[in-house]
Amino acid sequence: MKWLFKTEPSDYSFDRLRVEGRTTWDGVANPLALRHLRGVRKGDEIAIYHTGSEKAVVGTARAAADA
């Protein structure tokens, strides 16, 4: 499955993810978004989307574990 994860680059950028290698996607408060996040499975492809002024998919990642 493919997913779209969005982030404000000043909070957590794709460049930071590349340096750290992995992260926990937390801080999501929207109930519908949380319901969808529970469907993430190890190996799923994730497009990382920067919000704010950039408004673009800036890279891809893979889920390291199930939600």
Question: How many helical elements?
Answer: 2
- The string of secondary-structure elements, in order, is EHHEE
Strands of the largest sheet, in order across it?
A: 1-2-3
Structural class, please? alpha+beta
Average residue-wise pLDDT: 94
**Rg, alpha carbons:** 11 Å
Query: How many strand units?
Result: 3
Whole-Å distance between the termini? 13 Å
Helix content: 10-25%
Strand content: 25-35%
Largest sheet: 3 strands, mixed
Low-confidence stretches: none
**Shape verdict:** globular
3D architecture notes:
With 67 residues, this protein is α+β, with helices and mostly antiparallel strands. Helix content is 21%, strand content 28%. The protein is built from 2 helices and 3 strands; from the N terminus they run E-H-H-E-E. It has helices spanning 14-20, 31-37, and strands at residues 2-7, 45-50, 56-62. Strands 1-2-3 form a 3-stranded mixed sheet, with no helix packed on it. A hairpin with a 5-residue loop joins strand 2 (45-50) and strand 3 (56-62). The protein is globular, with a radius of gyration of 11 Å.
